[in-house]
Automatic annotation (TrEMBL):
Keywords, comma-separated and alphabetical: Membrane, Transmembrane, Transmembrane helix
Name this protein carries in UniProt: DUF3180 domain-containing protein
Transmembrane segment boundaries: 21-40, 52-72, 93-123, 135-154
Source domain of life: Bacteria
A Pfam family per the record: DUF3180
Length: 177
């Protein structure tokens, strides 16, 4: 089946699932950070004290994704992707890729929330509660960044070794300068 043609006669490209762009994750983090800062600014007095390890779950998810990435990377490098017993099933690889993409977005959201909270806390020197909550916000912010990094690496490990580069896919084949 060929791609449908546009009114100008050119073939319409079918949508493809491409690599997660850091630019998109940064936009998510900034938008969520601004929203979080606004919400915290007007509701900080009603929030409970923040525990130091409030962002611990982000580190746990990152570690799990790194372990999965090592398994996937080994299977892909050994060309052990297929339906045979002991191989990485293609549907499992697709699910792992979906997990990586979702985790990257979750990490960007977490970075935005923790950054928005931290910006508020850094501007409030007059509150003892703000001094108490800063270390927890820093731990959460770093956890979000670690989760994004682990998710992007897991996504990278899901690539086939003979997959074309981003330049070749976009039709911009690298040539002599």
């Amino acid at each position: 089946m060929t791609a449908p043609k546009t009114p100008s006669g050119r073939k319409e490209e079918e949508p493809q699932l491409g690599p997660t762009r850091i630019r998109d994750l940064a936009v998510i983090a900034v938008v969520v950070g601004v929203i979080a800062w606004i919400l915290v600014r007007y509701n900080y007095n009603s929030l409970p004290p923040m525990p130091l390890l409030a962002g611990l779950v982000l580190y746990i998810l990152a570690v799990l994704e790194v372990v999965i990435a090592f398994v996937v990377r080994a299977r892909v490098a050994d060309r052990q992707v297929g339906r045979a017993r002991g191989q990485l099933h293609p549907l499992t690889a697709a699910r792992v890729l979906a997990l990586a993409k979702a985790s990257a977005i979750l990490g960007a959201i977490a970075v935005g929330v923790w950054a928005g909270l931290l910006v508020f806390l850094l501007t409030r020197h007059d509150l003892a509660a703000a001094n108490h909550d800063r270390p927890g916000a820093i731990v959460g912010l770093i956890g979000g960044v670690v989760l994004v990094a682990a998710a992007l690496w897991l996504e990278y490990c899901c690539r086939a070794p003979d997959e074309p580069t981003d330049d070749a896919v976009g039709g911009r084949h690298p040539g002599p300068a």
